[in-house]
Design goal:
Largest sheet: 3 strands, antiparallel
Helix content: 25-40%
Number of helices: 3
Order of helices and strands: HEEHEH
Oligomer: single chain
Strand order of the largest sheet: 1-2-3
Number of strands: 3
């Protein structure tokens, strides 16, 4: 039987924590910063953990837990 492959787009965008949560970059930081408040820009630094519903979908794309 063939091996399960990781979706290459998912391995570039998501990481799994030791407890199994999914980390992803913040949304809304690509363009249009002039519209955002400085507080929004500050709060969107770094990474965040996905909600349980979204994490369930992403975990299907990362079967080996990169």
């Amino acid at each position: 039987m063939s091996k399960m492959k990781t979706k290459s787009g998912a391995k570039k965008r998501f990481k799994l924590t030791a407890t199994g949560k999914v980390k992803a970059g913040q949304t809304g930081k690509r363009h249009g910063m002039i519209k955002r408040t400085p507080k929004q820009i500050r709060n969107k630094r770094g990474q965040t953990t996905l909600s349980a519903q979204d994490a369930r979908i992403v975990k299907k794309y990362i079967p080996n837990g990169l």
